[in-house]
Design a protein that fits this description.
The chain has about 250 residues and is an alpha/beta fold. The protein is about 40% helix and about 15% strand. A six-stranded parallel beta sheet has the order 4-6-7-8-9-10. A three-stranded parallel beta sheet has the order 2-3-5, with helices on both faces. The longest helix has 18 residues. The chain binds fe (ii) ion. Fe (ii) ion binds next to loops.
Length: about 250
């Protein structure tokens, strides 16, 4: 007999030993953890899910969070020291989430970027509109031998459409796509959830990240449940992320 009650699976059960490649756990330098205590609270929340390895990605956003390699390095070291004093065995690398704006282009000319791994750079854009020179930015990144990893492509409403042609165009321009795990739960809205699953169904998502800024995100993640069909779509992405970024 047909059942209305489809079995659901807790997503967090699949994340034991995962390396989170997108989060804001470094203390006091963006809109994530406000201080060392908040960083530790987040890390302890992650530990409950079984995540103990992180590539931290503070915003580098000229107008709001004018971070530099130095400010990120300093916050990274202070957190590592603090965790060491607490006797916690947590692995954290420092990278960044770069806003693709004019300042980013200038930075690209001037200095080495912080990468997730090798030449992979996590980039984002405004939720209101893409940069007018997006194609130029992507081209220059790749001319400089970087590989762009676009953070949460599903969250850019201006790319949503019946066809996935805007996403196909970005892929053809060399972008990897990093999905936010909470997009699968409807946390950012129904439209974003739908696009997230369509991108997965079309094998367009390369990597998964949590984009955790605050405890609320981890609470939602620990409660998230998926159908078998949806779980099967995300498992290869979890595996690929783990294999690519484990350290
Ligand atoms: Fe982020």
């Amino acid at each position: 007999m047909f059942s209305f009650f489809q079995k659901k699976y807790f997503l967090q059960d699949q994340l034991n030993g995962f390396v989170d490649i997108h989060n804001h756990i470094l203390p006091g330098i963006d809109d994530g953890a406000a201080d060392l205590n908040a960083s530790v609270e987040l890390i302890e929340g992650f530990e409950k899910i079984g995540i103990k390895s992180f590539i931290s990605t503070p915003h580098i956003m000229n107008d709001y969070y004018p971070n530099t390699s130095e400010s990120i390095g300093k916050a990274h070291n202070s957190l590592l020291d603090h965790l060491d004093n607490l006797g916690k065995e947590i692995k954290i690398k420092a990278a960044a989430e770069y806003m693709m704006d004019q300042a980013f282009l200038e930075l690209l000319e001037k200095e080495k970027l912080l990468t997730l791994k090798d030449n992979m750079v996590l980039v984002e854009m405004s939720y209101f509109q893409p940069p007018i020179n997006l194609n130029e930015i992507l081209f220059k990144l790749q001319t400089a031998q970087y590989k762009p990893v676009l953070a949460h492509p599903e969250r850019y409403g201006f790319f949503h459409s019946k066809s996935l042609n805007k996403y196909e165009d970005l892929k053809s321009r060399g972008c990897f796509f990093q999905l936010n795990v909470l997009s699968l739960t409807g946390h950012y809205g129904k439209g974003i959830q739908e696009i997230a699953f369509r991108l997965l169904e079309n094998n367009m998502i390369d990597f998964l990240g949590t984009d955790t800024h605050q405890m609320r995100h981890l609470e939602k993640l620990s409660m998230a449940q998926l159908s078998k069909k949806h779980l099967e779509l995300i498992l290869p992405v979890i595996q690929r992320t783990r294999e690519t970024f484990s350290f």
